[in-house]
């Protein structure tokens, strides 16, 4: 029989939601700012080589954290199938498609086209992974997507259509990656980023070097730096945010990245600014705001599970005891017993049940 459990304090869901929004928002800031610079590098760099160097940079960014807290071998074996999917689809295929697409679009247009990742992630998470979405997330996704459509505008050229198709394919890869990664609770976010960086980044770099000349030291350094911040730190933050919010909600917040990228393109790279930019940004902000009000409450059941993720002991889901009495935010493998209760929640790591 499941043990009885009191409902958590009403604020526990709100704290997780705010933490998830902050993490996904910072991830969006880093990725959005990196896209215009990646677009500049794409003009003179082989797509495989650029994708590979970006992800090798991501691996370098998280290497110190993974050396300090190494993954548990048993957890690595349990999560291997999903990790392999994330590495191949999200770490290898998606970045190459993006690098190809960047050759056909301006930096601002490429940034805005990345809004397609939002719609595709919501669809994949809801249809194939049975993640609870709700009307707030649906409306938020529509608003953020509408803002992107307003900014791109009509009259697309042939090159833009080709670039848009390639970037859309990359977004589909990342939609699958997002949903798989959000459920990969056996490994820490930094471990997932390192695997993508070393395996996918190394493979794409090898392919690029086989078919293209070695780029200059300046190009290599720039690509590694952009990859470290815009991919390494950004991916790690997004995975942590998705564990607090669920893939769909985290992606709505992350969908502000294209607008941040467009702002960088307009201000730093001096690309032309459209008159509808501020309106689009306000619409996108309204969409993200809806995510913070997307929790729901009903009686639900937690199956017994062993997993490894960041947590505290004040949310009524983590009641294990440490020998030294520590209760602050920390991470380690831990076990949950079977329990049924009711409280406000979003589809975080502990609430991926069907409705």
Describe what you observe in this structure.
Helices cover 65% and strands 8% of the residues. It is mainly α. The chain starts with 10 loop residues before the first helix and ends in a 10-residue tail after the last strand. Residues 1-11 have low confidence and may be disordered.
Round the Cα radius of gyration to an integer and report it. Answer: 20 Å
Low-pLDDT windows of residues: 1-11
- Derived from helix and strand composition plus strand pairing, the structural class reads mainly alpha
Rounded average pLDDT: 77
Series of H and E elements: HHHHHHHHHHHHEEEE
- Shape from CA axes? globular
Helical percentage: 55-70%
User: The biggest beta sheet, please?
Assistant: 2 strands, antiparallel
Strand order of the largest sheet: 1-4
Counted by DSSP, the helix tally is 12
Cα separation of the termini:
22 Å
State the total count of DSSP E strands: 4
Strand content: 5-15%
Outline of this structure?
The chain is mainly α and 355 residues long.
Using brief descriptors, characterize the structure shown.
355 residues; two-stranded antiparallel sheet; 12 helices; disordered N terminus
Topology:
Layout: H1 11-42, H2 47-68, H3 73-101, H4 107-113, H5 116-127, H6 134-152, H7 158-182, H8 189-211, H9 217-245, H10 247-254, H11 257-267, H12 277-291, E1 296-302, E2 305-311, E3 330-336, E4 339-345
Antiparallel strand pairs: 1-4, 2-3
Helix pairs in contact: 1-4, 1-9, 1-10, 1-11, 2-3, 2-8, 2-9, 3-7, 3-8, 4-11, 5-6, 5-7, 5-10, 6-12, 8-9, 9-10, 10-12
């Amino acid at each position: 029989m499941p043990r009885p459990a009191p409902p958590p304090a009403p604020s526990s869901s709100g704290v997780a939601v705010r933490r998830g929004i902050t993490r996904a928002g910072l991830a969006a800031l880093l990725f959005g700012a990196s896209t215009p610079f990646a677009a500049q590098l794409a003009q003179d760099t082989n797509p495989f080589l650029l994708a590979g160097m970006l992800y090798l940079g991501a691996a370098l960014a998280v290497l110190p954290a993974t050396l300090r807290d190494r993954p548990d071998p048993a957890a690595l074996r349990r999560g291997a199938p999903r990790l392999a999917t994330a590495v191949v689809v999200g770490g290898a295929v998606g970045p190459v498609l993006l690098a190809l697409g960047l050759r056909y679009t301006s930096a601002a247009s490429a940034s805005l086209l990345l809004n397609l990742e939002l719609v595709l992630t919501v669809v994949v998470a809801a249809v194939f992974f049975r993640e609870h979405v709700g009307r707030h997330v649906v409306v938020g996704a529509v608003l953020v997507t509408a803002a992107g459509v307003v900014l791109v505008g009509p009259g697309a050229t042939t090159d833009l259509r080709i670039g848009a198709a390639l970037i859309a394919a990359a977004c589909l890869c990342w939609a699958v990656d997002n949903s798989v990664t959000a459920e990969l609770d056996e490994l820490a976010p930094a471990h997932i980023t390192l695997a993508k960086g070393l395996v996918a980044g190394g493979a794409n770099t090898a392919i690029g070097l086989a078919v293209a000349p070695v780029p200059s030291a300046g190009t290599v350094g720039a690509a590694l730096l952009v990859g470290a911040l815009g991919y390494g730190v950004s991916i790690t933050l997004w995975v942590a945010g998705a564990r607090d919010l669920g893939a769909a909600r985290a992606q709505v917040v992350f969908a502000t990245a294209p607008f941040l990228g467009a702002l960088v393109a307009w201000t730093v790279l001096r690309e032309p600014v459209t008159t509808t930019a501020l309106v689009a940004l306000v619409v996108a902000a309204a969409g993200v705001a809806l995510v913070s009000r997307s929790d729901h409450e009903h009686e639900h059941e937690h199956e017994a599970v062993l997993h490894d993720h960041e947590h505290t002991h004040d949310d009524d889901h983590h009641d294990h005891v440490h020998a030294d009495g520590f209760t602050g935010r920390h991470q380690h493998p831990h076990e949950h017993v079977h329990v049924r209760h009711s409280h406000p929640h979003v589809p975080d790591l502990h609430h991926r049940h069907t409705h």
